[in-house]
Amino acid sequence: MGTLQGKIALVTGGSRGIGRVTALRLAKEGATVAVHYGNNASAAKEVVDAIASNGGAAFAVCADLSAQGGVEALFTALDRELRARTGDIRFDILVNNAGIWVRGAIEEVTEDVFDRLFQVNVKAPFFITQKTAARLRDGGRIINVSSTAGRIGYPEMVVYGATKGAVEAVTRSLANHFGARGITVNSVTPGATDTGMNLSLRDPVIGAAVSANTALKRIGRPDDIAGVIAFLASDDARWITGTRVDASGGLKI
Ligand SMILES: NC(=O)c1ccc[n+]([C@@H]2O[C@H](COP(=O)([O-])OP(=O)(O)OC[C@H]3O[C@@H](n4cnc5c(N)ncnc54)[C@H](OP(=O)(O)O)[C@@H]3O)[C@@H](O)[C@H]2O)c1
Prior knowledge:
single chain, binds NADP nicotinamide-adenine-dinucleotide phosphate
């Protein structure tokens, strides 16, 4: 019996990378998973099919979180799918994982890039959480995927790092806000992780340089992060809230 039997989880950006492996892991623990995606319907379908073929339950929901109305669209689809399956719109676990990364030092950053990063990485998860509040069962879990870029002062990630710093500040405020309902709110900070977002890590020179700066001397894998998220989602993590779990293998410590 998995640790999340009977629970329902929404994983944003569940189609690829860290979100994909998180969706698979939560399903393996027994949760029914709403696999959100933005553009990549075939990738989301592959995740849903993989979960089903392992005996789990999942469905896909589409919403472009860079667009006005994206959060509304997400909940229209989610409510419809949940009602059809359970007769209710409530769920138990929110993983705010969808995110984008745009490189740029302060001289290179345009207002468009700044707005896009804040829209997808901060504004969308903020309003997803706002809409989740009435739907999340007491004792639920909110897990925000941040980044070590929120603690390391990378000059070429000035805006991306700022978005993740914002996510961590929101995490702390919401831990206090939702605590009386037994809902925990935490952030997980991956370091350099091998996904489509970070393909440069597959360059042997870049990969070796990043590994050298990492205490555990390798690049992260999505399952390194998914296991931490699954733990935070479980009952064993009920006394952890308002914290940032650094899942980076010790990057630049
Ligand atoms: N990889 C790393 O090294 C690393 C390090 C630290 C933190 N992180 C964080 O980890 C999280 C996941 O990153 P990842 O590496 O797994 O990225 P990824 O492989 O690029 O996957 C990104 C996911 O987010 C979704 N997404 C992106 N833009 C979206 C939009 N406008 N609307 C809706 N969905 C959108 C994508 O959906 P589609 O498939 O439909 O496009 C995809 O499922 C992000 O928050 C990222 O900041 C990653």
